[in-house]
Amino acid sequence: MGGLVEVTGLTKSFGRQNIWHDVTLTLPPGEITALLGPSGTGKSVFLKALIGLLEPEEGEILIDGVDMVSSRESQRLELRKKFGVLFQDGALFGSMNVYDNVAFPLREHTKLPEAKVRDLVMEKLGLVGLAGQEHKLPGQISGGMKKRAGLARALVTDPEIILIDEPDSGLDPVRTSNLAQLLMEVNAATDTTMLVVTHNIELARTLPDNLGMLYRRELVMFGPREEFLLTDHPVVSQFMSGDPDGPIGMSEETDHSTTDVDAYDEFDLAGQPGGATALLSRHAGARPIEVLPRQLSPRTGMPRAGGDRHRERVASGAARLYVADDEESDRERPVPTRGLATRALTGVGDLFALALDTIRETFKRPFAARETLEQFWFVVSVSWIPAMLVAIPFGAVIALQLGTLTVQIGAQSFTGAASVLAVVQQAAPIVTTLVIAGAGGAAICAEIGTRRIRDEIDAMRVMGISPVQRLVVPRVIACVLAAVLLNGLVSVVGVLGGYFFNVVVQGGTPGAYLSSFTALAQISDLWVGEIKAVIFGFVAGVVACYRGLNTAPGPKGVGDAVNQSVVITFLLLFFVNFVITTLYLQLVPGKGA
Ligand SMILES: Nc1ncnc2c1ncn2[C@@H]1O[C@H](COP(=O)(O)OP(=O)(O)OP(=O)(O)O)[C@@H](O)[C@H]1O
């Protein structure tokens, strides 16, 4: 039997915007439930809250008795293994073909031989009508095909609870009907608990056992289809008839505030098929609610355990229709908001937490070695040319400036040591990491941000896979290794540039340049440059990943994230450089001091 989901008093806001409050409902095990509501009423947000991808401010979500809201992330990863989720746009991983996308959860969570994986993947692809398309990348298939591939991936592990966000978007009417029929067959075969978020009235009438509707920041109605579909509630009846006239308008803000049933005239439709009583709104053009439509049944003729249990609950009176209190819904609720300082501190705390998680997850198995190498190669390939091009003029400027200064104070013989130390300890690590942050870090942030807005990160978390281990650790290690490698190269190029300008342009002698270095510098002076490169590379990688993972929705969100990632990294690098340099000069006495 499928999992039991019990939601109590759930409230969610974004900043000052309250999405919904005090939502209480139960998804009975093995039954199909549909969640309806006009656009923007928070149906997708509700779905994401159920699987712990968004934090509600209040309430609890019990999954077979375990609270998702108060669980730690590691517990949530385990709880989420009970779920299969189909996101609005499919959330396929863009770098994998359809076959690998569907095989992904099996390869991650089972030790099945590849032949068995192949059988299961091809079976699910056949179910959703995608056999023969398995080699295509998500960018090469239509929106509807992505949706079906996403469904195959959600089904492949035979989850206990399936959440489906708008199954009909991107599908033509025939495929939508086929998909509804498929969900019914899957439910009959597996007795899985299902929650379907939809606008599709036909789907809502014929598929679910229970229905709920979100409107004006609350759950206006929830209960068995037998009562919900024949309700006289003005909001629900308008929505279910698709009528333009009624309390629901173009936007939540301008909608009529009343959902009062008494504002509508009642008509007895005794002569209508089924003899149902229906309501007609006073507004012109309104259509009465129909008689209870026939529910889909499995074509295979297989009995549906969830459906039988549902009928028993209805017959015994245990399944009751919940209707929200109209006065309660109009009450203004203060939304708790956080000040600028609190938000800034929370951001710093979250960044620090990600840095600690990255260190911890680096030692967890399996280690994504291939991804790390690919990222390392990527960061080096986009950073090395700009790093070299910056290193030459940087080394030259330092050599010229110090050469002039040492002549002015009569210490020309120390020019070599001063230039080399300035390049190796200060210029090289900073130049290297600024270039890595600007080139590699920006690209990493944009890539993770794009994955985030396409729901790929959420899809990963839903499959019980930690994005920190899978995405952040390889990228941070790649930035660290690239920083160490490029720091060495930039140091050599900078020192050679300094030698050229000091000896060739300023007329210094090669011997004096080299001997002053050995007289004043020590081996730890060289090491500190590499240690800085490690720390700066880590900072650049973590900040890029942090901003990517917290990208706001839309292309603008990605642009802002990249911009902030580079700016934050620059600020942090100069601050951390100041701290390390001060500590080093305090703790390690200079040679001859
Ligand atoms: N991560 C987020 N940050 C801030 N606001 C968000 C976020 N996600 C959703 N919202 C806001 O929450 C509200 C509800 O969004 P949601 O996508 O859940 O609506 P919906 O009912 O699923 O709409 P539709 O049917 O059009 O998909 C919208 O105003 C949206 O802008």
TrEMBL record:
Which spans are transmembrane here?
376-398, 405-424, 430-450, 471-493, 533-549, 561-585
SMART domains (UniProt xref) = AAA
Output the superkingdom of the source species: Bacteria
Tell me the ranges covered by the ABC transporter domain, including all copies. 5-241
Keywords assigned by UniProt?
ATP-binding, Membrane, Nucleotide-binding, Transmembrane, Transmembrane helix, Transport
> What protein name is recorded for this chain?
ABC transporter domain-containing protein
The protein's organism comes out as: Nocardioides dubius
Upper classification of the organism: Bacteria, Bacillati, Actinomycetota, Actinomycetes, Propionibacteriales
